[in-house]
Amino acid sequence: MIDADSTLVDQIMDPFITIMLIAVMGALAVAAYRLLSGPGYADRFIAVDMMTGLVVAACALTALATERTEFLDVGFGLALIAFVATAAFAAFLERKVAATQNGSGAGNGSDETAHEHASGASS
Amino acid sequence: MIDLIALAIMFLGVAFLILASVGLIRFDDPLQRMHAATKAGTLGAGLVLIGTMVSKGTGDVTLTGGLTLVFLLLTVPVAGHLLARAAYMSGAQLVGVGKDDPLNGVLARLDVPLETASQQLAFEPTSSQTVASHVGAQAVAVEHVPSPERVRFAAIGNTAPTLGRRAAGFAARTALPLTAVVAVDTSYADATENSAETMRQMRDTVSHWLPDLRSLSDELGVPIDLVYEEGDAAAAMAGVGDVREFLILPIDGWADHGVGEAAGPSATGSSAKDPDGLLRVCDLHPGPVLYAVESQQMGPVAILFDGSPEVWRGLDFALREGLWTISDLRVFGSIDAAARELIETKASNAGVPVRFLDADLPVEDGTLFPHEVADGVVAVILPDLPSPKHIRWNGLFWQDRIARNWQGDVLVWT
Predict the structure, then answer these.
(1) Is the pTM of this model over 0.90?
(2) Which of B64, B71, B90 is closest, CB to CB, to A93?
(3) What is the ipTM of this complex?
(4) Which of A5, A44, B53, B327 has CA atoms 20 to 30 A from the CA of B60?
(5) B-chain residue closest to A78, CA distance
(6) Res B28: pLDDT
(7) A3-41: string of b/e by CB count within 10 Å (b at 16+)?
C-alpha cells in the first residue's frame, strides 16, 4: 500500500482526516459540557457513555492519520471498559436509590411507604 | 476510489456523532438524551470504524475494527437499558411521564430526583430561609387553583347507592352538575376463563343497583347524568382529564363490581392479576380526587404536610368547598414559620381550629401518620397515595398504610 498512487490519495485524505478529528473533538467538548452540567447523575453518565463512543471513533481516525494501527486496539479496549463502567454505574445508582428510600424507614418495614414518609418529612 | 468511499463513510459517521452530541445538549430529559447518544452515537462510531477498515483494508485492522464494532453493537443496548432503568428509578425529571406512567407500581421510582433528595437530607437544618421563600412562591400558585365545575362519581359494586347519595348531597349543596360513571372492566372479563359469562355477571350486578341510583336523583332533586361504559374502566372513571372536575371514588372495590371477589382468586386463572386499579385512577385525573367512605362524618381532619403544591391544593380545596365539617385540623410534618402562618390564616378564614403536631412523633413502620395524629380522624389530605398503589399490598388494606386500623376519607390532588 506504499505505492505512489496511494500516497497521493493519502496526501489528499490527510487534511480531511484532520478536519474529522477536529469535529470529533468538538463533539467531545459538547459531551463534556453535558458531563459537567448534569443536571442529574443519569445525564452525566449518559455523557460518559457517549464520550467513549466518540473516543473510539477518534481512535480509529488517529490510527488512519498516524498510520499506527495500535490505536484501534486502544479503541477496542476502551469500548470493553466503557460497558463495564456503565453497568457498574447503573448498579451504583440503583443502590443509591434503594438507600434513599430506606433512609428514614428505620430498617425493615415497607420501602415504599417509608419513602413516602421520608419525602413528606424532608421537604 | 476505495479511499474516497472510506472518506465518505467516515464523514457520514462524524456527521452522526456531531448530531448525537447536539442531541445530548438540546434534548430535555435523560431518556431523550440517551436516545440521541446511544442510537446516533453508536451509528457514528460504527461508521467511522467501517471507514477505517475500508481505508486500510489489511487483515489485522479489519479484525480489530470488526471486533470493536461487534462489541459496540452488543453492549450499547444492554448498557442503555441499565442506564435508562437507573435513570427512571432515580426519579430524574422525565418529560411526558406523569399522569399515565405505565411503570407506576411496577418499578420503584423516587418522587424527587435523587440529587435533590440527597441534598435535602444533607442541608436540612440550614435551609429554612430558602424553604420559606419556596413556600411563599407555592402559596401564590395555589391562589389560582380553579374551583370545581362538575362532580364525577364512580359507581362501583354494591356501595354505589350509599356513596351516590353522598356525592349527590355534595353536588346539591354546591349546585354543581353530577355525573355518575358506571364502568365495567372488560379487560378483567377477558382475563377470566369464561369472559362472556363474567361480562354477564358484571352487567347483572350493575343492573341490581342501577335503579337505586336513578331513584336517588328523583329523591334528592339532583339531576344525575348516568354514563355507562364498558372497556378501560380506569380511563372511564377518570373522564376526559378536566382539572375542574371533582372525582369521588369509593375506598374499595373495582369495576368488576365484586364479581372477581365472589368468584374467588382461582377464577381469574393464575396469569390474571386480581382486579385492582382503583388507586391509580387518581393518577389519571388531574383534578381533586376523594376516596370516600360511605357515611359523611364530622370530626378532626389530618393533613400530611410536605410543602408540595399537591398538599396546598388539597388543603385549599377541602377548606373552600367545605368537604367535611372539620372540628380540628391536624397538621403533621416538618413545617416552617411561613407555611405555618399561611395555614393558620387559611384555617381561621374557614373557621377551623388548627393544631400543629410534632414532626418527630414516632411513626409505626409502613404508615404515614402516628397514632396521636390519626386517632379519631375522619379524613386525611395527602400529597399522594401511599405507593405502591394497590388496594391490598403485603396483606394490608391500603388505608392501613396511612394509619393502622384506620378508615376514612382520603383527599388527593396530584
Answers:
(1) no
(2) B90
(3) 0.77
(4) A5
(5) B68
(6) 81
(7) eeeeeebbeebeebbeebbebbeebbebbbebbeeeebb
